[in-house]
Amino acid sequence: MDKRKRRYPSTTNSFNVRRRSKMASQSRAARTALARQKAVEARKRRIAAARHRELVINEKKKKSRRKKIAVYGGILLGILLLLGIQEILRKEIPQVDFLVEALEPPKDSYSINETCESYRETVTEMARDYDMEDYVDLILAVMMQESAGQMVDIMQSSEGQFNTRYPREPDGITDTQYSIECGILELKHALREVNCSGPEDIQDIEIALQAYNFGTGYLHYMEEEGLDQWSVRSAQSYAKKVCGGRKRSESDPLRKTAGIWDYGDQYYPEHVLRYYPEA
């Protein structure tokens, strides 16, 4: 009998198959985990990049805001410094009035308006009657400062000593012609009191103009103090004395334009002479 070898299944092949299958499974799991990790890292990078862009944009906005604030702040500071210097020069250092003038608009920018010019003929006739024809331009400058020709009491002479027809109170005169007449007489009286030599005698005209605004009491004050030249300091000292040291409130527009003390216009000569061609 021919004996043949009996074949049995190979245990080695079966083991190899299982090992390859297990390795394949582990490889797929590893690749899946790696892919998941890469996806997470990519998402983190996108988030980080978005945050970085947002920070850059916000920083640019902040820089832009800071730049605008610096520019506007510089402009505001410059204006405040200019106004502050002007105020200091006016109040504390009257000897350097030329610096104050340099901070103000040039006189060429001021002129008598058409309304006041329309009264030139009337003013000339009245001035001739009172021997004031050389001061027509000065009278019109006073009119321009007092009302710009827009009020009935055009020379604001109601409270003056030459008003004998109407109440001596603000805007008491209700006749423009009479207001001009009283204003001319008031100015003539002040000019004579200071011995003004003519329309070009600006030093004496300044004193007379302040007396037109304050009243002749200012002339007595100048004499008592031994002063022969107008200044902002003398006007403010007199105003402070008359009002008893009462200051205008911060909200009062006259505080800036007419002076801190609650009496008259302490810069009146400067204001009038802006419109006077001889100044």
- Summarize the biggest pleated sheet: none
**Class computed from helices, strands and strand pairing:** mainly alpha
Q: Counting H and I runs of at least 4 residues, what is the number of helices?
A: 11
- If you compute it from the alpha carbons, what radius of gyration comes out, rounded to the nearest whole angstrom? 45 Å
Q: Alpha-carbon distance between the termini?
A: 156 Å
Number of strands: 0
Low-confidence stretches: 92-105
| Relative strand content | under 5%
What's the architecture of the largest domain, going by CATH?
Orthogonal Bundle
Query: How is the CATH topology of the largest domain named?
Result: Lysozyme
Highest CATH level, the class of the largest domain: Mainly Alpha
What is the overall silhouette? rod-shaped
- Total of domains: 2
Task: Calculate the mean pLDDT score and round it.
Answer: 83
Helical amount among residues, as a percent range? 55-70%
Description:
The chain is rod-shaped and about 145 Å long. It is built from 11 helices and no strands. The chain starts with 10 loop residues before the first helix and ends in a 6-residue tail after the last helix. With 279 residues, the protein is an all-alpha fold. The protein folds into 2 domains: 33-104; 107-273, Lysozyme, CATH 1.10.530.
